[in-house]
Amino acid sequence: MSDLFDTIVSLCKQRGFIFQSSEIYGGQAATYDYGPLGVELKRNVKDLWWQEMVYGHGDVVGLDAAIMMHPKTWEASGHTEAFNDPLIDDKASNHRYRADELIEDHIRDLRQDGDMEQATAVHERLVAALNSDDMAGDLYDIIQDEEIRAPRSGAFDWTPVRQFNLMFETHVGPVAETGDRIFLRPETAQGIFVNFQNVREPARQHVPFGIAQIGKAFRNEIVARQFVFRMREFEQMEMQYFVKPGEQLDFFAEWREKRMAWHKRLGVREEKLRFHEHEQLSHYADAAEDIQYEYPIGWKEVEGIHSRTDYDLKRHQEYSGKNMTYFDPFEQEKYIPYVIETSVGLDRTVLMLLCDAYDEDEANGNERTVLRFHPEVAPIRAAIFPLSKKKGLPDIAHQIEDDLRPHFNVMYDERGSMGKRYRRMDEAGTPFCITVDFDTLDDQQVTVRDRDSMEQDRVAIDQLTAYINDHSTGWSRDAV
Ligand code: ATP
For residue range 388-397, what is the model confidence (pLDDT) as tens digits? Predict the structure, then answer.
């Protein structure tokens, strides 16, 4: 892992953003807990997604479906049969890799070395292997033929490629052996599909319309060593938009743009975001692109946008025997809608924001670490400091705290030197630090220090809410 990535992981632990789950027992692999700062950051992201997707669109409504769904759901969706990762073990280090990712890295190396012809040939073999009935065998053959070595040990001593189903299983009922076997959902999308009719009618929606949901998903990821990038328990924010067959590619193009705009709206640097077309489409999809962010561990998917045809609704109709057609009262026609899906990982978004915000610079000759979050995602919007504990300054600062609390998450701090208080807030990514000083007693004004420029403005106490709002919406990473 890169040094920067390690630094961010350790800052997350020290400052209470994110840490290993069940740490006192040695930790539970690939699961993480969000501390006080992390949970605020995550909530802000969820709220901004909901505001954009649901409140921002009259034709998108919300849903909160259960994590435990009827096991037939996963037969219909194809997860029971085909939700597999092809894995291969390096016998020298016992390290496990995803076979397709090893080959993708190899292709990238070939391209970097200028061997375009070979890169294209291997790429074609990879695409064919991923679509073949003997995916494991074909991937293994590529690794052998290309003599791909294990990144960690450098050895060329592989086990065969094996497929692992990623769904977590559990049992419903008092006795494990006799209870029904169910799965923890590996994605939130199916809760939307099975409820298509339950939601559409009462919400009085007509096609085109969408259903949005935020919730936990579970995958038994075998290669899970990338902090919150790949977890076994994570959160997704998904929206399925139901359209008339034939119109899907226009809506795909529209949602693709809207979703990219949302990431930029979070303040993420534009040059760190890009679209990535899928190398091979799922058999039911007729378009698919990822939004990738350049994490310190490389360009990686943060969101997928997929045109899934009528595959899911048709399959649920088939497996449940329930009607999934839609009758269009305006055109007087009946059909099973096509679906555009936007699916973004909440934890990967949080990680993207942390990586994008991380910066080091100098403050008064000292090095400082600063998280340059967009003010609207920052866990703490403003901190309030009394310069001194004398002359009633803490009382005024507490009064400001009370006045701001209904509008923003704010924090009061009177401990330590001003320099130390600023440093703590810089590391938490707090965009505004408000200081009550002795002049405040006369002029009813306070000093507001900007996290990024470290410049200070004198602002009247009764103008603080407006000041923070103006400087939050107008914020741009480019101006830093
Ligand atoms: P990957 O190829 O990286 O495993 P995926 O293509 O399987 O991802 P999707 O099934 O499209 O991912 O899920 C949609 C989104 O859910 C992803 O873009 C990602 O942000 C998030 N996600 C998927 N798996 C995980 C995970 N194990 N941990 C955290 N987030 C995840």
Answer: 998 899 999 9
Nearest protein CA to atom 30 of ligand 1, as residue? 345
Q: Does domain 370-479 have CATH number 3.40.50.800?
A: yes
* CA 167–ligand 1 middle distance (angstroms): 13
Measured CA to CA in angstroms, residue 218 lies from 164, 185, 252, 448 at distances of 14, 6, 27, 44
| Cβ of residue 303 lying under 6 Å from some atom of ligand 1 | yes
Is residue 289 in contact with ligand 1, taking CB distance under 6 Å? no
pTM, to two decimals = 0.87
Distance 174 CA to ligand 1 centre (A): 33
Nearest to 161 by CA among 225, 89, 228, 227: 89
Q: How many CA atoms lie within 13 A of 127 on its CB side?
A: 10
Ligand 1 atom 22 nearest Cα: 345
- The model's pLDDT over 321-335, given as tens digits with 9 standing for 90+, comes to 999 999 999 999 999
Domain 3-78+166-353: give its CATH superfamily: Bira Bifunctional Protein; Domain 2 (3.30.930.10)
Rounded average pLDDT over 42-49: 98
